[in-house]
Amino acid sequence: MSMLTMKGVHAHYGAIHALRGVDLTVEQGEIVTLIGANGAGKSTLMMTLFGQPRASEGEIRFQDQNLLKVTTHQIARKGIALVPEGRRIFQRMTVLENLQMGSTFADQAHYQDDLTRMYQMFPILEQRLTQRAGTLSGGEQQMLAIARALMSRPQLLLLDEPSLGLAPIYIRQVFRIIKELNEAWGMTILLVEQNAHHALRVAHRGYVLQHGAIVLAGTGKELLENPQVRAAYLESG
Ligand code: ATP
After folding, report:
1. Distance in angstroms (rounded) separating the CA atoms of residues 15 and 76
2. In this structure, what are the phi and psi dihedrals at residue 62, rounded to the nearest 5 degrees?
3. 3-state helix, strand, coil in the chain (%, to 5)
4. Ligand 1 atom index nearest CA of 53
5. Quick one: signal sequence residues (predicted)?
6. What CA–CA distance (Å, rounded) separates 133 from 105?
7. Residue 161 Cα: closest atom of ligand 1
8. Cα separation of 149 and 137, whole Å?
9. 57 closest CA partner among 17, 115, 110, 103
10. pLDDT tens, 1-20?
11. Closest Cα partner for 64 from 9, 8, 6, 3?
């Protein structure tokens, strides 16, 4: 059984038909990327997993559970964590308080061990524990947003445009961390990116979303070499 299965998923914002019959799977241990232009529906696809907006048609299963039947709050407890576009860390809280907030739904018995793991993966955070999160650089805030999500011990990590607006050095670091989380920790990751080149290089498989529908799917390598993908998403950027 796939970890995540979406079948014929439709979603609307009022009159806007944002998803038009999406089929997608994520297997345990994979990095799957979703690429597409602005407004293609990438964020919407991720948000339907949390019921915001709720899929109006189709099927969404996470492991053996039907996600269309549970609340947003229950989904967080079921092991899906989202790092939203724009990071949305708690700016006025310290780095440590942000990490504590991330662990709210997790088994508190693992809290100290989890913190130690975060410091190993993100050494910069340990140096800034008492600093207000809003005073970190953009790249550091992205690290914190990822670490905060990991503190909930997710089985599936959703990353919405993690490289957006970052300096090149942090962009490389974000993709290195994505790879390391997958290879060293076995984390399953669904990655939305406009930076198609980096995303397809790091992903096992990818999907191209256009106007709310999947128009192409393949391995990262296949999509990197696909002439349509190259013309639309690689050569222009
Ligand atoms: P971006 O990279 O710009 O975030 P995206 O591929 O993630 O693009 P979505 O944000 O999912 O695209 O948007 C898909 C469509 O739904 C667009 O037409 C967008 O204008 C519309 N949309 C997104 N969020 C809302 C909302 N909260 N209310 C109304 N319409 C929305």
Report:
1. 28
2. -120, 115
3. 40, 25, 30
4. 27
5. none
6. 21
7. 2
8. 18
9. 17
10. 899 999 999 999 999 999 99
11. 3
Q: How far apart are CA 40 and CA 194, in angstroms?
A: 11
| Ligand 1 nearest-atom number relative to CA 36 | 6
Question: What percent of the chain is modeled with pLDDT above 70?
Answer: 99
Cβ atoms < 10 Å from Cβ of 73: 11
| Structural tokens at position 150 | 């990991």
Verify cis geometry, omega within 30 degrees of 0, for the bond prior to 53: yes
**36 in ligand 1 pocket by Cβ < 6 Å?**
yes
SS3 call for 124: helix
- Tokens at 168, concatenated: 């090149």
User: Tokens 């504590």 identify what position?
Assistant: 100
Check pocket membership of 56 for ligand 1, CB cut-off 6 A: no
Q: Which residue has the tokens 């964590």?
A: 81
Indicate if ligand 1 lies below 6 Å from the C-beta of 34: no
pTM for the structure as a whole: 0.93
161, 199, 201, 224, 234 from 208: Cα distances, Å: 15, 12, 14, 11, 12
H or E stretch covering 229: helix 227-229
Reported ipTM: 0.93
Give 109's pLDDT tier (boundaries 50, 70, 90): confident
